[in-house]
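Hey, I was hoping to borrow your eyes for a little while. I've dropped the whole record in just underneath, so have a look:

——
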Amino acid sequence: MIKYVLKQNKNKKSLAFGKWYAFPVVEETMDLAKLAKHMEEHNTGFTEAMCLGMMTAMVKCIKEMLLAGKNVKIDNLAIFSVGIRNKVGAKSEADFTAANNIAGVKLRARATGTLSNANLNTSASVKKASVIGSVSTSEGSNTPSGGNSQMGENTPSGGNSQTGDSSSDNGSSDNVDF
């Protein structure tokens, strides 16, 4: 169950000013150690330490491959890649310098396979969170029916917390800048 809260767009310069949007409630961020413990509890045949060792090595190798200019696809999870954050465009190719025109790099992750946005929209259910804090209670229930659920999607301003590409807006016609 994915819980959400509603927030009103208060950016007077936005076309979506005054409209309300759902944002996911994150109750916990699990680190590799907690994920390893969870995996061991699912009878993977590996101990918590073995799972943690493999995942730690995987993270190190993914970083190494990304910095070598390669994309890394983990089936049914995501395709990880590196993007470039540009400062401003150069007037010509000859005027372009990395120092003047590139702000930095960023990690991108695009859902793939059984974790794709289409599959999430058909298998996830959402519920409004009535209290946010250490313990959340929920009221009302809703399952997405192909509408704009904004599940993990970035807003055009990058306002959500996904590490992925912000080019997809799930069919929404509103540009949301909070």
Summary: Residues 71 and 81 are 5 Å apart (CA to CA).
